Amino acid sequence: MASSVKQVRCNFFTISILLFFSTLVYSQKTSNQINKVNEFDKLLIMPLGNSITYDFRRNDTRVIADKFGYRFPLYNLLKNTTLNFDFIGSEHAGSNFLPQGFDDNAGFPGITDNQLANLLETGWRVQPPDNNYQITSGPYLETYLPDLILLHIGTNGNNEIDGTSASDIENILDEVDRVENLLNKDIPVIVARIIDRVPNQEYVNTLNNNIETMILDRINNSSNPAYPDLLYLVDMEDGAGLNYSISPDPNGSPGDMNDYLHPNNKGYEKMANVWFDAIMQVYSNPITSIVQPNNVYSIVGEKATFSVDVNSLKPVFYQWKKNGIDILGANDSTYVTDNLLIDDDGQFFSCDIQSGYYIMQTDSV
Questions:
Q1: Cα 334 vs. chain centroid, distance in angstroms?
Q2: In what order do the strands lie in the sheet with 325-326?
Q3: Distances (CA, A) of 215 to 20, 111, 130, 362
Q4: What is residue 136's predicted lDDT score, i.e. its pLDDT?
Q5: Residue 296, CA distances (Å) to 16, 18, 150, 170, 306 in order
Q6: pLDDT tier at 281 (50, 70, 90 boundaries)?
Q7: Stretch (H or E) spanning 10
Q8: Rg (CA), the chain
Q9: What residues contact residue 190 under an 8 Å CB cut-off, 6+ apart?
Q10: How confident is the model at residue 23 (pLDDT cuts 50, 70, 90)?
Q11: Which of 6, 136, 187, 316 fits 143 for a cystine, CB–CB 3.0-4.6 Å?
Q12: Confidence label for 360 from pLDDT (cuts 50, 70 and 90)
């Protein structure tokens, strides 16, 4: 980040000019966006599921703006990284805690896995007897197009015959694949083994085992039409460390469930930790090293050369700036000024570096 302008030394008609290199920023560009080097992509994360995603609990008296679920603790974890991200979806909850725009989600209280598959395919939310309306004019993901989906679905109806199945969830994944192929875009899905109930139920574990088998087959079985699907599996059932006893917020009891189906705030924090770890593994920082720049001294009428050396596992794109304004055509790792003017003394030169969905800054010099 920029610090105070350094002192200038004058000697007759020769002036020593300090050009200060300030900030590096970078973010991923997809193959069809390579020329848009002065714009930054955000990782658009879609929290997708039911009331656990939305945060709608039994006998809930909170206003919608207070319902933040795992999304608020996940936001707090992500904002402390250099990842450039946003949440997307047609639903809104938690705006009293989440910044503007970050309350977006695709959590639909009461929805079953087959109803969610239908919603994604048609844009219609059909949940008799209360919900039967159109959200998008066509397939949901063609309107709300994510870069990453966090899928936790299957808690509704999983104690009913034919109420929940891995095949219903596979229909959701097939719709994601259809949109990927249509738009020539990768959409990774992190799929959860769903949380258990209070008391624990064997049918939840059975569903999760079936989900895991289905996911691994899509990833590893070359005869599966979805192979090799861009899927990741996380364990919310046991891996989140949930204490499956009821402790409504905010009484401080050790349990992590607000009721027999929904976590309390502590439980949601544990879910957020699992999502966060998975996101960090899927989107690891591609930059392996940056050689920090130094201050540059030159004289009026001469040139000054700035360069940055970046090692990255992904393509790197550059946009040099002067006082935060793009310098036209300055898109290489090295930038050479032309014909320095006395007005250039103390000006700030920086370079935006794009590689992955991240934003980083150089050290101040």
A1: 31
A2: 296-298, 17-25, 348-354, 317-322, 325-326
A3: 51, 21, 32, 40
A4: 98
A5: 10, 6, 46, 58, 8
A6: confident
A7: strand 10-11
A8: 25
A9: 148, 149, 150, 151, 231, 232, 233, 234, 275, 278, 279, 282
A10: very low
A11: 136
A12: low
DSSP letter (8 states) at residue 218? H
CA distance 200 to 260: 9
Q: Collapse the DSSP code of 50 into the 3-class scheme (helix H, G, I; strand E, B; otherwise coil) and give the result.
A: coil
- How far apart are alpha carbons 266 and 151 in whole angstroms? 20
pLDDT digits (tens, 9 = 90+) for 133-176: 999 999 999 999 999 999 999 999 888 877 899 999 999 999 99
- Give the three-class secondary structure for 220: helix
- 272-304 burial, b for 16+ CB within 10 Å, e for fewer? bbbbbebbeeebebbbeebeebeebebebeeeb
pTM beyond 0.85, yes or no:
no
Beta bridge partners of 320: 351
Kindly tell me if the per-residue pLDDT of 257 is higher than 90: yes
CA-nearest of 225, 257, 224 to 240 is 257
Q: How confident is the model at residue 295 (pLDDT cuts 50, 70, 90)?
A: low
Q: Determine contact, residues 73/268, Cβ cutoff 8 Å.
A: yes
Listed in sequence order, the residues at least 6 apart from 4 whose beta carbon sits closer than 8 Å to its beta carbon are none
Query: What angle separates helix 166-183 from helix 113-122, to the nearest 10 degrees?
Result: 20
In one-letter notation, the amino acid at residue 50 is N
Q: Is 309 exposed, middle or buried (0-12, 13-18, 19+ CB in 10 A)?
A: exposed
Place of tokens 């020769």: 14
Report how far residue 284's alpha carbon sits from residue 199's, in angstroms, rounded to the nearest whole number.
Answer: 37
DSSP state of 358: B
Strands 334-336 and 305-307: antiparallel
What are the percentages of helix, strand and coil residues in the chain, rounded to 5? 25, 25, 50
Question: Is the Cα torsion angle 136, 114, 229, 268 positive or negative in sign?
Answer: positive
Query: If you search the block for the tokens 């966090």, which residue do you land on?
Result: 150
Q: Which tokens go with 265?
A: 């705030």
Question: What are the contacts of 31-34 at 24+ separation with CB within 8 A?
Answer: 32/184, 34/315, 34/317
